[in-house]
Structure formats: structure tokens, C-alpha cells
Amino acid sequence: MGALRGSGHVHRPVRTEVRENLLARMRAGEERFPGVVGFDRTVLPRLERALLAGHDVILLGERGQGKTRLIRTVASLLDEWTPVVEGCPINDHPYAPVCSRCRRAAREAGDDLPVSWRHREDRYGEKLSTPDTAVGDLIGDVDPVRLAEGRSLGDPESVHYGLLPRTNRGVFCLNELPDLAARIQVALFNVLEERDIQIRGYALRLPLDILLVASANPEDYTNRGRIITPLKDRFGAEIRTHYPPDLAEEVALIRQEATLDGTPVVPDHLVETVARFTRLVRGSSSVDDRSGVSARFAIAGIETIAASAARRAALTGEEHPVARVCDLPSITETLQGKVEFEIGEEGREVEILSHLLRRATAETFRSTLGDADLAALSDRFADGATVESGELVGGGELLRRIGPLPGLSDLVARLAPDGEADAETPAYAAAAVEFALEGLYLNRRLSKDTVEDRAIYRT
């Protein structure tokens, strides 16, 4: 500890640490909450004000709105490394130890008190609130092993600390706070107001230096009475989250979160289609709007589409697999379990999702190819010809069935992002042509017969 003092180190409480680091990032124009999409103009300014005020925060929002992701980024505002008393179970600062063990060690060792360093990733704690959570899990309890070793019941060192004390001098997240039993919520009163803990009636006052951030569903928080009113009053800030406000941010979120390694390629027009599909499902009168439609809905959808393309490549021998429109129907049955439908829609779940998926595809077609000249493709069917596609028809085979198509390069260029190397492959060209065929069908300029996993386009 003597060397630490000699270095000029200054002890700062967690809230001061977060506040000063946040202000420093603001002044430098640096990113404050990395990986958070869609909250720049709404949630983040409110969160920043709460952190600057030193408030504990509760985030209210439906499932899949990024509440936990946002809470985890708060820990990035801590100092990268902080000194702690070596071996301390609650991470005491060497200048201000609070547990009996460290106070005794500080008296005995003085400036020779051993110090270790703790990374900010280790200063973040998280607990999913469940009905079986006990006070001992969060706060602590008597350790029978230490009693068996000879310590007395009144000895503070016979206590085994819970998650909250072990996150002392850090950020702690309580997910789904209303799911905690009322008696457990009462145990948080002292943590939020007096900043200390009580364990089994011990004459033990343990001041905690902790920033508490919780999450909850608005319905549970405000209507069902599953969170006790005095606990609400102890949070300094209540912030509402939301789903991405516009299509571009929805697309950016899918691209950021989906696990895609580039093989197969998922073209932008399919990502946009899934984003539009997700937004249509959220706004559907057939879906229970109180439960929400998670961002994981769209992420799982795009990953399923990529998997369908990978399956086709494995079965047909495609060298450069690219996802196509024929892969879209595979997501409706996969995703129906992620949506809470209204009671009257029982049995129609796949039908509803399929209808909304067609609408999303049509909207994407109009936004990307609505003004494109597709006369050459329409003329291909003028003499009664048909083209059969499907999830087991490779890209090269689909192009062969369509035959020479004037304007194909322009069609691909409209759908391929700048610098997309895979746009030069036959599989990408096939994806562009099939998307155009589907758009013509949805706009009633072509007909389509669907037989199992095959689609036959005709006039």
C-alpha cells in the first residue's frame, strides 16, 4: 500500500469513477456504450443523465430490447484496473477497507498491506431474478464450514458473502427484478438507500460501494404488483427502452448480432426482408403486443436462412452458397415459438407469419427493384414458359433454367452492396433473379405454384 500511495493513486467511489470516465469520453467524442443500436436519441441520453447524477437505474422494456446488453456496457465506464486488498472477498480498497478481515490486516501491516489489481470485467456482477432466489444468494449467510472450524456464531468472519457484497466497488445487474419474491426485494432496501447490508441479525454494518442497475418488463413493474412500491422509490432513475425505431437500425442490429461467418452469403435484400418482417410481426393485431417481439426473433431468422443456404450447398455441390428467397419460408415454423399470439389466433400461427413474410418481401422488392426494368425477365414467360426453383435447386442450375437474360448485371448491381465480391458469382446472380421473380409474383405480374419445396413461376 505504501507503493500505491507513492504512485499518487487517488481512491474514487464507483459512482464518481463512472461519472468522470463518462464525462471524459463525452469530451473526447468517444463511443460510450459500444454495441448498442437504436438508442442514440432516446435511451442513451437518459441513461447518461442518470449515471452523471449517480443514480441507481431500472430499465423497463419488453423482451429482446437490449436491456442486458446496455447494462453490461455500463461496466466499461469503470477504470480498466483498480487496486484491492489482496485476498479480500468483497474487493476492499486498500485506503478504505470495510470488512473486519481487511481492517485488521491494515492495522497490522500498515504500508506493507499487500495489494492486487482487479480488471473492470471482474467488477461486473449479474443475477437473473428467479422465484427461488434466496437472501443468502444476494446478501449472504452464515457459513457452516467456518463455524465447524471453530469460529463463533457472532464472528463477522463466519459470514459467507452473497453476490452483491462480492461485487462491491463495481456494477451489479438484477435482471427481471419483479420475479424476486417480496421478502427478497425487502432485503434490497438497505443496499439501495443506506448502502449497507444486514445478515441474520448480526451487528454488522458493511458499507457497500456499488452501482445497481436492474431490468424489468413494464407490465410486471407497473400493473401486476409484482414489485413492492418502496423498492421502486429507491431507484433514482427509471428508463424505458424500445425496439429499433427505424428500418436501418433494425438491419444494423441484425447484421451486428447474427452469427454469420460469411459462408454462405446473406444478401442485403434478404436481411432487409427479415427486418421488415420483424417489424410487421410487432405491429400485427394477431400478436400480443404486451409480450413484444424480441430482436432475437430477427437474429434467429437470418441465421436460419443462412443455414438453409448451407444445406443446399452441401446437397447440390455449390461452391459459393448464397441465401435466396426460397430459403425464407423455412423461418416461419422455426420462429412461431418466439411470438405470443392472441388467444383467438390459435392454430393460425404459421399462416399469419407466412402472410406477413410475403408482405415484407413485397415491400423490400418495391424499395429495391420497384423502378427497375424487368421487362426482359417478364418476357421470358410470354410464350408460356415456366421456371422451377426451390431450396434444393442450386444457383447455377437456376440460371441455366432461366437462360440468357439481358440486363442481369444491372439487376445484380442494384441488389449487391458496394464492394461485395460475392456479387460476381452465379449463386449471387441467381439470388437476384429469384428475388425479382418473387417480386413480380407478389405484384401479380407472374403466377407461382408451390409444391412441397418447389416453386414454379409462370404467366
CATH class of the largest domain: Alpha Beta
Query: In CATH, what is the homologous superfamily of the largest domain?
Result: P-loop containing nucleotide triphosphate hydrolases
Please give the alpha-carbon distance between the first and last residues: 83 Å
Classify the beta-strand content into a percent band: 5-15%
Helix fraction, binned, reads 40-55%
Summary, kept brief:
With 459 residues, the protein is an alpha/beta fold.
Write a structural description:
It is a single chain. The protein has 21 helices and 12 strands. The chain has helices at residues 2-6, 14-28, 43-53, 67-74, 100-109, 135-138, 144-148, 163-166, 182-186, 189-192, 218-222, 229-234, 247-257, 268-283, 295-316, 330-335, 349-369, 375-379, 395-402, 408-415, 426-442; strands spanning 57-60, 81-85, 115-119, 124-128, 140-142, 159-161, 170-175, 210-216, 237-240, 387-390, 447-451, 454-458. With 459 residues, it is α/β, with parallel strands linked by helices. The termini are far apart. The protein folds into 2 domains: 2-240, P-loop containing nucleotide triphosphate hydrolases (Rossmann fold), CATH 3.40.50.300; 247-458, no CATH class.
